[in-house]
What does this fold into?
Amino acid sequence: MIRTVLAVSAIAIGITAVAAQSDPIAQRKAIMKEVGAQTKTGGGMAKGEVPYDQGKAQTILSTYVDASAKMPGLFPENSKTGGDTAALPAIWSNKADFDARFAKFGSDAKAAASAVKDADSFKTAFSGITKNCGGCHENYRAKKN
Amino acid sequence: MLRKLILLVVAVAIVGLAVFYIVTIPATVPASALGSHTPDLANGKEMFFAGGCTSCHATPGQDDKTRLGGGLGLKSPFGTFYVPNISPDPSDGIGKWSEADLVTAMTKGTSPDGLHYFPAFPYTSYQRMRTEDVRDLFAYLKTLPAVQGRVRDHDVPFPFNVRRTLGGWKFVFLDGKPFAADASKSAEWNRGAYLVNGPGHCAECHSPRNALGGIIAAQRFAGGPNPEGEGWVPNITQAGLKDYSDKDIEYLLETGNTPEGDSVGGAMTPVIRNTSQLTPQDRRAMSVYIKSLPPVEGPKKPEKK
It folds into this structure.
């Protein structure tokens, strides 16, 4: 009996994992959520609300680099709607611009990873990198309802 | 009897038309009302970014935000407005304008040829500006590149296209008062109140409007439906921003980043491009003022589909 339960749950977990992998909307949302969580930490450090931490700074920047590499591939033609997505149709009509913006976001974050040494250099780099967020959210994300 | 009645109706109509005529005369500020003034270009630039001029007047689809050739289409429930060229070009822009023309346009909503502007141009806020600030802005605008090209006419159907009727709208919604400082508050708070309510014209989007397109005063800053169409504009009173410290607001105006780790988007992105150019002191003042707005509930958001 217990064996069956385990087997069934193992299969269920497997299916869920596969579904998540083949569901680009869920994947890009998860990535953006992580980017948001890191940005919250970064904002706290930039505002001086939490003490600067070099390790945390590097995690933030590598999360950005990672996200910028994965995101452009998560907008296939069949993912324009559904899954409560906030992605706007403008993404697909300006895909080259959309991709270029992620590339810039990634290269800005990569450059910062070697330049950031302390609270001040982080603050400057962070506000520059996060300007890229608004650049995409301006035209490619629906206003929250 | 009938004759008397007809006469009465005619008399009332004549008086009504006369009142309408007088009330709707476009107001102007004569050049003689302006004393001598040495323009302060740095202040003019600060006003340019506080006023967000470039967000509407820059020619769409170009990176240089100081080329104010206009042409952007602004959708509204009353039709589509095409933003005019305000570059210093003498024939297509404001190259031939006098200082008094700009003061009149911004504080009275009247064009140099004596027509009412549509309130898509937010003179309901700009009327609070100090004359010297508008004059400095004028001097700064003159330093920007001239851009050729006249912008097409507005696409606004009858009856909204009868400009004279806007005089009636102004009679109701334009009080003509300059900014009044509150002596019980700090200088910083008053500076913030001036920037937010005057040049910043934050309330123009962040407030609900009535059927005539006027801001509902009791719900000022309480957010509402996006005047340009889809989506919702956030409530920026303490009913909406209670979890934001004044420092969070200041940081948002500098970077566009919210304390939740998100970034603002949509029409707020170009606003941040402007507020990020302001002096830290001015951003600080705006934040102190916004943080002080008492909580006001806005219109109910529609249920999520």
User: Anything to note?
Assistant: The mean pLDDT of chain A is 89.
